[in-house]
Amino acid sequence: MTRIAMIGGGPKCLFALLALNDGLEEYPDLEVRVDVYDPYPPGAGRVWNTKQPQELRLNVNPRIIDASSSLCSKTFNQWHARTGTGSDEEAYPPRALVGQYLAEQFDLLASQGSLHVQHRAVEATGINRRGALWEMESAQVTELYDEVVLATGHGLNGYLPPDSPEGSLPAAALTVECEPAMDAAVPAGSNVMLRGSALTAYDVVLHLTEGRGGTWDRISDEGMEALRYRPGGSEPASITMTSRSGIPMTPKPNERPRKLERILDPYRDKVRRWGEERHLNDAGKPASNTQMDALWRLLLSCAVACAEAMGAPLTENDLQTALQTGISTRMSAKPSPAEQLRESLQINHGRQSPSPEWLWGTVWSGLYSQLVEALSRISWTGEERKQFKVFAANLERMAFGPPEPTAMKLLALFNAGILKQEQLSHAGGSPTQVVVDAVTAPAGVLHLSQAPGAGASSLYRKLFLAGEVSIRAGERGLLTDTDGTCMDAVGERNEALAAIGRPTEDPTLGHDTLNRELHPEYQRWARRIVRQLAASQEKVVH
């Protein structure tokens, strides 16, 4: 019998176990026991738990959600078709509904799969090597396992950044964790300041308005569909989002114009070729500082081509400036966040010429799958890494903003005078102000502001200090091999210890996604386990 411990029971855990179950179909005599450590029900985990408020909706097209397997062939959309209403908002269904789909697939695995799966509703606190085995520690038990997989996702419950003001509330407790005591700490009529102005902040805004009885009237804004907010009476008097830039995320269009897809296709091949050359370079000699410059020139060329196709009167310099600074040069005076949101929605519907932000969002999201593959585990120079983080932060804001229904609600709240957005340095205080840290735990396991070894949890801190895992300079995530196997402090494979998803962010990119096809490590991990078990069975037979 082989025993496996999965630390974290969210979607990445589910995908890995479904792949393992499918791979073991031709070996019915092999016995594999899996314990899933997660305080929340597995499959959905904390972020997708089924008890979160209904106003928290999916931020991406649900067609990417696929937890199908030999046990159930249905993707989320196929599963959802049995209950869908066909309304506009059904294009971005409640996250609790997505969690229900994921939880059902896990329950099916546990009840009908070939794996013996048990959920341990506790948090793992430590992992220690015991010869060829791993000892798992939690508040309740200490057990030994042959294999351990780290899939802790978004980190700890109730996360607050190290610089949080005293008394501030964690956003997750108001939203996905749905704690009534935290809700009561934000009374009706209060003034709320959110430290953050991205997707997590939007969740808090909608929970404190729509989630408290506010409703939306459909209206026309100069011929374009818009919303008007109708207060429910229990919302705060004001909600102020704050960030370093004071710039809202660019709303995603519902569909990308076909003529841009024709431009993106050849650039996808170019990014793949760049990645192949870069990986060859890494294997044979020290990296050249000019290689990342070549990638940025390639992406800039794509953005210029998209601008020309859309008839946007933008120069290469306009696009270069937006990439480097995150700020458009198109307007002489900086528009308000509400004006920027409105402009983005009009661009999405062809009522305005595309902005640099809109074009960069198209390029980054359109080439993202190829970029993730090309940049995976490359060797960075210090300057390359520094530049990439600046550019990528700007591009993430432009490419992966809210869907249109959410953006329309935010705009309605701006227009109603309830919602504001300011730069963090300009945000004023108030005696009646409630402060909410509207941020998620950083990806990876090491906060860059902390000393080496000061991980995001005791579990990772112990592994790092014991030399069982490695984190490269300037990065936050665990370095792994292509099958998820952790690399140890001396750069060797630490067999039987794997990590998938957000704990590996930086060496591999883009883990904050439900797109099962974007990262193949879980599939390769499952194939490794199947090969090992099949080989051990063959030895016994002979």
UniProtKB/TrEMBL annotation:
Any Pfam family matching the protein: NAD_binding_9
Residues annotated as domain FAD-dependent urate hydroxylase HpyO/Asp monooxygenase CreE-like FAD/NAD(P)-binding: 5-154
Record region (Disordered): 228-256
Protein name: FAD/NAD(P)-binding protein
Organism annotation: Glutamicibacter arilaitensis
Family matches, as InterPro entries: FAD/NAD-bd_sf, HpyO/CreE_NAD-binding, L-asp_N-monooxygenase_NS-form
